[in-house]
Known about the structure:
Elements: H1 12-16, H2 19-28, E1 31-34, E2 39-42, H3 45-52, E3 58-59, H4 66-69, H5 87-95, H6 101-105, H7 108-125, E4 127-129, H8 130-147, H9 154-165, H10 176-198, H11 206-212, E5 214-215, E6 218-219, H12 222-253, H13 255-263, H14 268-278, E7 285-289, E8 293-295, E9 298-300, E10 305-308, H15 310-313, H16 348-365, E11 370-371, E12 377-380, E13 385-389, E14 391-393
Parallel strand pairs: 2-10
Antiparallel strand pairs: 1-2, 3-7, 4-14, 5-6, 7-10, 8-9, 11-14, 12-13
Amino acid sequence: xxxxxxxxxxxxxxxxxxxxxxxxxxxxxxxxxxxxxxxxxxxxxxxxxxxxxxxxxxxxxxxxxxxxxxxxxxxxxxxxxxxxxxxxxxxxxxxxxxxxxxxxxxxxxxxxxxxxxxxxxxxxxxxxxxxxxxxxxxxxxxxxxxxxxxxxxxxxxxxxxxxxxxxxxxxxxxxxxxxxxxxxxxxxxxxxxxxxxxxxxxxxxxxxxxxxxxxxxxxxxxxxxxxxxxxxxxxxxxxxxxxxxxxxxxxxxxxxxxxxxxxxxxxxxxxxxxxxxxxxxxxxxxxxxxxxxxxxxxxxxxxxxxxxxxxxxxxxxxxxxxxxxxxxxxxxxxxxxxxxxxxxxxxxxxxxxxxxxxxxxxxxxxxxxxxxxxxxxxxxxxxxxxxxxxxxxxx
Length: 395
C-alpha cells in the first residue's frame, strides 16, 4: 500500500506550515517512520512526553538537530546538548544553581530597566521593532550577564545566532553561512575562555564550572567549553524572543485577552506560557536510539534518529482542548515548549522572567499597541519557527 502521508522536516511545504502535517501525523501515524532517513517522528503529546523521560533509550550523543540525527551530519565540536549521563546529570547539577528561582529573580531589576530604556526610545518615535530593537537586545544583554561576557558582545551574538538558525529549504544541513557563523562565534567564545583561564582563579561564574568539570574522564579544552557556552547563548538569545513575538501578535489579535493583561499584569506570565504552547519556537528536538527498543508498538533500532515533535504535541487535542486557539485563560496543563525530562531547558526560568516583564512593561506603556501584520517577517526553518521582525506602533 502506498502511503498518502509524506513527512520529513526538510520539505519546503512542511517548513512553510507544519501544523497540517502534524495533525495528520497525530491522527494517522503518530509514530511515523521517515523511510528516506531510516528515522522516526513522534507526534502525539503523551508519546513525546514518555519518550523524553527515557534518556537511556533516546540519547543526545549524535546531536539534537535533524541534520545530525537524520542526515548524520556531525558538528565539528560537540555541544552541551550532546552530553548524556552520567556526565550530563553531574554537569547539569553544577549549572542549575545559576538558573533556579532565587538567582533568576535577582535579574528582574536589570530586565525591567532594560525594557523601560528601550521603550522610552521607541515611544519617542511612536514605533519600534519588537524583535530586533527590544526582545533580542534584552535576551542578549541578559545572556551576557549570565555568562560574564562583556555587554557589548550582545549584538555580535545576536547576529551570529540569527545566521546560524537560518536554513534554506534546499539545505538538509546547515548552510555554509550558518556554519561560518557558528565557527566565528566559537572562535570569539574560545578567546573569551582563554582570557578567563589565564586569570588563574575561579570567580564563581558559569565558565568556571566548565573549566573545573570533566566530561568523559578528562578536562575540557577551550574550544569545547566555547561550544558549550554557545549552546547556552543560542538557547538564551534565539527562542525566548520568538515566544515574546508570538505573544505580542496573539494579544493584538485577541483584544479581550490583551485588555485582561492590561488590567491584571500578573496574567503576563500566562500570556507568555500560552504563546510557548501555541507556537513553540523549537518545533522538535532530535534524539538517537541507543539500544533495541519497542516504543508505542514500533521496533526501533540503535542508531536511528528520532524527532520529538514538541510543537505537534502542544497542539494535540488529546492533551489540550481546542489546541489551535490561543487562550491565556486555559487551565494550566503539561507544556512541552521547554522540553521535558532530563534535558528540559535549563534556562526556562530566565525565559519566563524576560517574557513576563517585557509584556508587562509594554502593555503598561502602550496598551493600545498596533501591528501591521503585512510587515511581520517570519523564520520558518526545519526546526526553528517564529518572528524575526515585528514592527509595533506604540500608543
